[in-house]
Amino acid sequence: MKNIALLLITTLFLSSCTQKISPHIEKAKSLIENVTETIAPVPTIILESGLPNKHLIKTSFIPQAPEKNWHQPWQDACEEASLLTLKYYYSGKTPDVATMVADYQLLFSFESDNKFKHDINIDNMSTISSQYLGLTPNILENPTIKDIKKELSLDHPVIITANGKTLYKENKNFRSGGPWYHSLVVLGYDDNSQKFIVHDVGTQHGAYFKYSYNLLLDSVHDFPVSGKKEEIDTGAKRILVLLK
Predict the structure, then answer these.
(1) Of 179, 82, 161, 75, residue with least CA distance to 122
(2) What is the pTM of this model?
(3) Spans of the chain, pLDDT less than 50
């Protein structure tokens, strides 16, 4: 296993000769963690809290820009990507790119009819969930790490809106230091590494990306009341859970 880990690190360093090293180091860490878990899986333990010490929900990764077109509305479509991730999760479907694009367009049309802006907040996402996707929304105010883990342990993916510049501290796949306002789907956690596992819909290598517990919770903010992205840290701490 040590030889495998060494090979992964060596390969990534060699490929980064003309690129920034930091993203490759983070990718190498993730690959090593995944290889270790595959070769010698650590058994799940039920803690005194009644929660397992780790849990992971498997579902399709729905990129924010499925055709790699980053012009509007795709530039601000991370919230829609998060919602569609839940739509496909509960339907059990794995969509192709054409299906994704068609579903995005229908969702954009619904938002336009309801006069939503490019950046939608948790309340808007809740409305879309109940009135368009046919899912039951539950907004949790001031969530704790335990609150998020409890939902995940019940196989309820959690949608968060967040300060992308906070996330950038652990995810260098973002451009320009990360977006002021971002959305992603939390799918799992692992107490051994103290990390949440997410589908970060707006970044390269975003499927099953890992953020530390405290950093992810610190990043959580709804869109600010002022309407200014730059004031994201004034936004309320809320998360969205959708049920079938």
Answers:
(1) 161
(2) 0.82
(3) 7-8, 11-15, 17-19, 32, 35
